[in-house]
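User: I've been trying to design a sequence by hand for this structure and keep getting stuck. Would you show me what you'd pick, starting by listing the structure so we're on the same page?

Assistant: Good idea, let's start from the same input. This is the structure you sent:
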């Protein structure tokens, strides 16, 4: 027969064992208190755009419209702006040099693709970010873009770029 003293010792050992197992399980699920930073979330690789930077580098007449019915008239107005063209330059890192919304100084921007097949022009980062503009249409001669950020989209409307003829 087991004495009550032995029974109490066995019970205490069982409780101590159970607590040890529980504490060990808890300690493995707690975040580490070490000084190393947590791993950064994986960033999806940038998708290439179907429009290449070299296709949009050049001299462009520029105008904008809000109402889609005004597009043809706006293209004609943009063509007239070729006397003082907007120049899209080639960037040093494979992008294009253009202005961001509300920025006086142009900077190198990237052409970015998206899983939906849309193309964007903007600073490094995920396609479709607030500072990006979507390339709504592009046929090599006429490009229409729209800013993603809603206030800029309202202020600037749909930007129509019409390629200017090469200098004679």
């Amino acid at each position: 027969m087991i004495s009550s003293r032995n029974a109490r010792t066995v019970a205490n050992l069982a409780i101590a064992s159970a607590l040890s197992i529980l504490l060990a399980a808890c300690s493995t699920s707690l975040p580490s208190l070490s000084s190393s930073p947590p791993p950064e979330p994986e960033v999806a690789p940038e998708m290439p755009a179907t429009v290449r930077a070299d296709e949009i580098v050049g001299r462009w007449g520029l105008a904008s419209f809000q109402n889609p019915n005004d597009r043809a008239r706006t293209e004609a107005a943009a063509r007239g702006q070729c006397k003082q063209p907007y120049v899209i330059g080639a960037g040093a890192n494979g992008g294009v040099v253009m202005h961001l919304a509300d920025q006086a100084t142009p900077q190198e921007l990237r052409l970015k693709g998206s899983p939906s097949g849309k193309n964007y022009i903007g600073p490094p980062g995920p396609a479709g970010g607030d500072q990006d503009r979507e390339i709504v249409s592009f046929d090599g001669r006429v490009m229409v873009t729209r800013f993603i950020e809603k206030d800029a989209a309202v202020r600037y409307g749909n930007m129509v770029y019409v390629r200017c003829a090469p200098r004679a």
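That's my pick for every position. To get oriented when you compare it with your attempt: Residues 96 and 150 are 23 Å apart (CA to CA). Strands lie at 47-48, 58-65, 86-90, 96-98, 107-113, 119-122, 133-138, 142-147, 158-163.
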